[in-house]
Amino acid sequence: MSEAGADPSVRDGINQLETYLYWQHQEERTRAETEALCAALPWLGPDERDEVARHYLTARRDLTETMRQHIACRIPQIRSEYETRYHQLRVRTVAGAAGAVPAICLAVELLRL
Question: How far apart are the C-alpha atoms of 16 and 23, rounded to whole Å?
Answer without folding.
Answer: 11
